[in-house]
Automatic annotation (TrEMBL):
UniProt-recorded Gene Ontology molecular function terms: oxidoreductase activity
Keywords linked to the UniProt accession: Oxidoreductase
Keyword Oxidoreductase in record: yes
Annotated source species: Jannaschia rubra
Family matches, as InterPro entries: FAD-linked_oxidoreductase-like (IPR029041)
Protein name, as recorded: 5,10-methylenetetrahydrofolate reductase
Gene3D superfamilies: 3.20.20.220
Amino acid sequence: MAVFGFLRSSAPPANGVLADFLTGASLEVMPRTAEKVDDFRAILPRGTRVYVAHIRGTPIEDMVATAARLRAEGMEPMPHFPARIIADRATLTDWVARYRGEADVTQGLILAGGLPEPVGEFSTSMELLESGAFDGFERLHVAGHPEGNRDIDTDGSMKNVSEALAWKQKFSERTNAAMALATQFCFEAGPVIEWADAIRAAGVDLPVHIGTAGPAKLQTLIKFAIACGVGPSLRVLQKRATDVTKLLLPYEPTEFLSELAHHKAANPAFNIESVHVFPLGGIKASADWLNDHAKDEE
C-alpha cells in the first residue's frame, strides 16, 4: 500500500533531505491513547502505518477495535504480537483470526515482549514466527537492538541478540512476507550508523525502521528511556539536561534524524529505510512534528 506524504502545515519548508528520509514514517498508539484522537484522518495522511502496542492486561477486544477503527479511518494498522503475554497456540490463532476478520490486518510486529517470564508456551518472537500463524500476512516486523538488550544479553554483550538477528534473516529468506527490523527509540546517530553497518556486514540485509522519540519534555524522555533500557544514547539526554538553555525546551528528534538522513543521502545503500516515531509526548505532538518536517507530495 502506498504511503502518502504528511499533511501540509504552516511551518517553514522542510529540509529536503530530512523530508525524503521521513517518507513512509510510522507512529504507535495504544487503545487508551487512541481514544484521545477524535479522527486520525485529521492528523495523519491516508495509508500511514500505525502500530498498536499490546500491553499485558489489555483485552484483545480493545486491541482489535482499535485496529478496526484505524482501518476505517484510512490507516494501516500493525498490531503487536508479544510472545510472552500469549497463553497458548489457540490464543494466538484466535487473535490472528480476529484481526484478520474484523480489521483486515495484514501486518504485524512480532516480538518477545518485556515480561521476564512468559505466561504460556511462547517466549520468543522466533517461536511465534515458526508457528505458522502469520502465513498470509503481507508484512512482518521484528525487533532490532542498536544498543543491545539487557533482557536478552544480561552480560551486556550482543551475543544472543546477534544470534536471533541471524535467525530472523534466514526466516526472511523463506517467507513471502516483506520483513523489516523495528528498533527501540534512540537518540544518537553515530552508534546507530555503526550498528546498521555492522549487521549488514554480518549478512543481515533486513531493512531497518529506526525508532525515535517524538517531541516530549526532557524529564518524560529520561523516564521512558531508563524504563525501556535505552543504552549509550541516553547520554544525549543527560547532556541536554545539564544545558540550562535547553532544559525547559521540549526535545525534538530533528537533529538525530537529520544526521541519519544526510548519511542516507550520501550512502544510498544504507539499510535504514524508514522512521518509526514513539509519541512519548502525545500523538498530536508527534503528528504535528511529522507534518512540519515530512515531504509534501501534493
